[in-house]
Structure formats: structure tokens, C-alpha cells
Design a protein that fits this description.
- By secondary structure, the chain is α/β, with parallel strands linked by helices.
- It has two domains: about 350 residues, ABC transporter transmembrane region fold (Up-down Bundle); about 210 residues, 3-Layer(aba) Sandwich (Rossmann fold).
- Helices cover about 60% and strands about 10% of the residues.
- The chain has 19 helices and 14 strands.
- Strands 3, 4, 5, 6, 7, 8, 9, 12, 13 and 14 form a ten-stranded mixed β-sheet that branches.
- Helix 2 packs antiparallel against helix 3 and helix 2 runs antiparallel to helix 11.
Length: about 600
Amino acid sequence: MSDAGADPALAWSKGLRAELRMMVAAFWASSRRNRLLGLAAGLVGVVGATAYMQIRLNAWNRPFYDALTRKDLGEFTTQLGVFAMLAGILLVLNVSQTWLNQMARLVLRQGLVEDLFGQWLAPLRAFRLANAGAIGTNPDQRLSADAQHLADLTTDLGVGLLQATLLLASFIGVLWGLSAGMFFKVGPYVFDPPGYMVWCALFYAGTASALSWAVGRPLIRLDAEHYAREADLRFELVRVSEGVEAIAMYGGEAAERARLDATFGSVYHVLRRIVTATTRLTWVTAGYGWFAIVAPILVAMPSYFAGKTSFGELMMIVGAFNQVQASLRWYVDNFSAIADWRATMLRVAGFREAMVAMDRLGQDARRIALTEVEGGAIRLDGVQVAGPAGCVTLEGGPAELMPGERVLVGGGHGEGKTLFFRALIGLWPWGAGSIARPSRNRIIFVPARAYVPTGQLRDCVAYPRPAAEFTDAELTAALEAVGLSRLTGLLDKPHRWERHLSENEKHCLAFARALLQRPDWVVIDDALNFLDRPSRERIEGIFLGALSGVGVVNIGHDGGREGFYTRRLTLRLDPEGPCFVPAGGEGE
């Protein structure tokens, strides 16, 4: 049965419930759960105490205004003292609520970000997500700005809803009691229904809520689109900032300006639509807000002018009515924030769901059997790597690579070398056959694009192991061996080293890690061919000397010294073979 004709409100509700269930389950498993529950309990206590004091303050209206009416200076002075006491207690409660609110925001964000980091950086997920289409773009926006915004909105709206609920529960009984004797006239007929003022407040707030939903619903979709376009703009700005040198060399400033203008144009377009939608909603919320000033007086006017209600009682009724209808109108007053929260929840929950779904990516497709075995050999048996452009196979049948061998796995341009490299790691499991290799921590994989993390240089050299595992002498010796002697005095210097080092130096740094960590194998995605000749000869000399017992698999082009490789294998791409394309993604 198709959902094409389903009720949008029902679909919205079902989607929200599913997202909330997932996020609540993540929260319940969080290490921050108990602390956040403690803060929530404190907020309930403070908000409950505030509601009680608000009732006391509302009851204070009657004697205070009646004293004014009678011009009773003694009673007036006494009531000022009562007010000072009530206001002082409410001030303490307000400050306490602010502190609890801010701490709840902070702890909720901490738990949310820790959960998202854990999901994102689970083995293989971040890589697969980056190749899964639009949901994998700009993860920084969802992990940082969206997570913070969701934590802030959830806390503020949650506390606001709690406060509105407790005030409603407290004042609806007060207003019901004050409605005794109230009436209204329609022509010659007089009506005095029980709880008259309560029903008026319910009607007033219900009408405003329904109208706000009808007028403001488009804001949910527009807010979600706005966050996506803002993330695109930030990405473009970072891209231009990091590529300013190349842009200047090409004289591409005008082209980049046009691209940025187009990206900002999409932001501007959605913001214009948000302005229009918000303006329409403001007509409803502001209109009802202004009318709320006189609404309770108009409703209570017949009883007051008939002499059945004193001025003090009238002010008490007005205060109780305003508390009830304000609590009932919480949805109206916060519709824009609720729409924003819903859009942010959609982005964060959708991102988290997509990350978890990466474990199921291509689960119906055939997979390469990858096993970790004891011993140092790598065995490749009938390996077929299914990629977007066809099937990558290793010519010559099964192969067993023995420890200490230096193997060149070659192939022409576009023959799927990077795809085969990913299959050896386990990043790309789709295809057939089997790969048996030592455990992941006994192999260093060197990608074609060198990666250098930020931080102290010693952390970059030791990555991903802790720098504390190695002495300064070992770190210095590794840098000197690969030709990076100029860096030996900078081990404690924090820097964005990926900008400070040349491409050649970045690749040399990767081989310094191998010299430090001494794995069983170093598997290279053509990175040797990115080295200048002196650096390449130096690295090959290390594998012939200090690391002669370490196996080398270079998946790339030939270009090394004569006799360096002890074995050569060839990759072949069969365009007619089995293919696999991740949803919305790309292969090599």
C-alpha cells in the first residue's frame, strides 16, 4: 500500500517518534545519563517551587490592590513587605534555574557529541559515509553546530514545556475557583457555566495553537534546508581558504568569487523564504499576544461592572487567566523554536541513522572474505574486487606473499589500484574470493594522499600510536633516516603540519612511522612514486637495510631501483565483471 496519500501530519508524527526513540536510546546508553538526570531532577524541583511561589504572588494581588482601592496605607506597607519576600525567593529560584538550564545544555551537548563521535569514527563508517552521497557531506556541520543547536533547543524547550505544564496544573484550579459568580450575557440570556474563565482560556489558546500550526508548518522544512545551505557555504569558504595559493597562481579569483556568490545565493534564497514564513507566523503570535492584554478583562467585565467582583479580585483573575492561557499558548509562542528544533533533530538523527546504516551498506552484495591470521604471510585467493567501473582481479591465480618480500602490484591507469588497496585494508569489502593477512595493527597502510594530523610533531610522527611509546631519540632517528633532519628540534612544537610540510615531506613522514613501529608489512598505494628521486632512494634503502625483514606491497607504477622488488604481480580491470556502487557514492 502506498503512502503517497498519507496524512502529512501523521507522517510527521511517525517520523518524529522514530527519531526520538533512537535519540533517547542513545542517551540512555550514554555515560552522561546519570548526571543529566540529576540536573533534570533539580530543574523539576526548582520549576515546581517557582510555580508554587507564582501562586502565592498571584494571591498577593487581592490584598494589595484592595488596599490601594481603600487607600489603606498600613495594609499597603505590609503587602509591600510580603512582595519583597516573595520576589526575593523567586529571584533565588530564577538564578538557580538559569544555572541548571545552562549546565543541562552543556552536559546534553557533551553526551550528544560523544555519541556522534563514537558512531562516526567506528571502524570504516566515516569512510563509507563519505562515499554515500549527500548525507555524508559536511559532517562537521552536523557534529558541531547542529549538535550544539539541538542540545540548546532541547534544553530550553524542555524546561519551557515543564514550566508551562506545572504552571497550568497550578493555576487552572485557581482560575476555576475564581470563576465562581462569573457570567456573560447574550441578549436577554445570562450564562454562568462552571469554570467559565478556564473555558475561555482554553478556547483562546487552542485557536491560537491551531492557527500557528497551519501558518508556521513550512518553517520546519525551510529551517532544515537553511542549515544544509549554510553548511555548503562554510565548506566552500574553507575550500577557498585552503587553496588560496593555487587560486592566485591560476588567477582564478573571479571564478571562485562567482562560485561563492552562487553558493551564497542559495543561502539568501532560503533565508528570504524563511523571512516570509516567519512574518506570516508573527501576525498570528504577536496578534494573539497583544490581544491577551485585554482578553481576561473583557471576559470578566460583566461580573466586575455588576459589582460582584472587587478590583483586587479582578486583578487576581487577570493574573490567573494570563498564567493559564500563557501556559496553554506555550506552543504558539515557541512554534518557530519548535520548527527549528524539529529541523535540527531531523539533521542530527538522520545523520546518526545513516552512520549506523553504513554497517549494512551492500549487505546483500557478495563480499570478499577478509580474515586476520597468525604468522606474517598475506594470502590472496581468487580475489575479485567489485567496483563502480567493473571487477578488479589479480592475474595469475592465488598468491601467497611471504614476510620480507617486496612486491610490486602493477596495472595501467584506471585499472583499480586504489580499489584493490582499499580491499586489502577492509574498507571495500565487495567482491569475491578471500584475503588472509596479519592483524590490522601489524600492517601500516600508506595512502597515495599523505595524512598528517594537527598537534605536536611527535604526535604526527608516532600516529596513530601514542607518542609516549617512543623516546625522543627514537623519534629523532626516524626523522633523520627519512631525510627530515630539519624537523628534529621541533618535536614539541604544535602546528598545522599538513600546511607546514611539502608533499614530499608528508610522504617521508609516513615512512618514518614505519621505521618507528616496525610492522610486519607496509602496504603502499603508489605513494613511493610521489617522492623525489633522492627521497625514494633513501626510503628504498631503509627497506633494504633497517627494515629488510618488513614486507612491502607497493600497489602502483614501477619506478624503483633495479632489484628492489623481489616479485611482481599485475592487476586487471574487467569492465564486464561484477560491479558495485555504494548508494550515491563513487569508487576509486
